[in-house]
Design goal:
With 246 residues, the protein is α+β, with helices and mostly antiparallel strands. It is built from six helices and twelve strands. The strands form five sheets. Strands 3-4-5 form a three-stranded antiparallel sheet, with no helix packed on it. Strands 10-11-12 form a three-stranded antiparallel sheet.
Length: 246
Amino acid sequence: SSTPVELAGQIRELATRTITREFRHIDPAEARVLLFDGLDRPLTSFGSNLSGRATDALRRLGVDLQMNTRVTNVDEGGLVARYSDGSEVRHDARTVLWTAGVEAVEFVRVLAAAAGASQDRQGRIEVNDDLTVGAHDEIYAIGDVISLRNLPGVAELALQGGIYVARQIGKRVAGEAGHRPPFKYRDLGTAAYISRFDAVVEIGPFKFWGVIGWWIWGLIHLTMLSGVPNRLGAVVWWLMNITRDG
């Protein structure tokens, strides 16, 4: 998942660049940001090349990478981490952000039980190829609450699923309901923002990083916004943040 990497990078950037001059008695740059991961490197799904570049970028920012490590306990004063050699170390922390996984909301369990559908280990509802639930062809489920062909729980899945379902509902309203083709997910690539002017992007066989990756990451998110006014507003806000100092 790119979420922990993006959070760690942005928090570190916030402390060292954005708010570092706004405090008189503390230096936010002195704050420690630790990233714990059970794997040997971050962003393993991006491949060794982009994963290595992300690792270098995080270290340049000052993120303390704790790889091959699993968090075994979290409380109000910090956390306990278990390392690959079996040792456990407590780290004091006022803020702990958990990104290791999520469980589907209770409503999904209720829906699955009512519709006679199964759930996977994360509680996601197992849908049919046309995104309907169980034997109910009038009930659809989309986004990261569904389990279908090991599809990733990312925003693009929800966007494409929403377009597909909207078309099917439109056909039914127009009285054109008939054979429904299975939902096909198109993998348009993956991207992870690390810090300003630094991101990693993978689109098919093409890989981008650094400033180029950052620009492509921005363009991808601009195209996902609905409406020209929203896109123009985002461009103006983006340019203001690029050009201003700090």
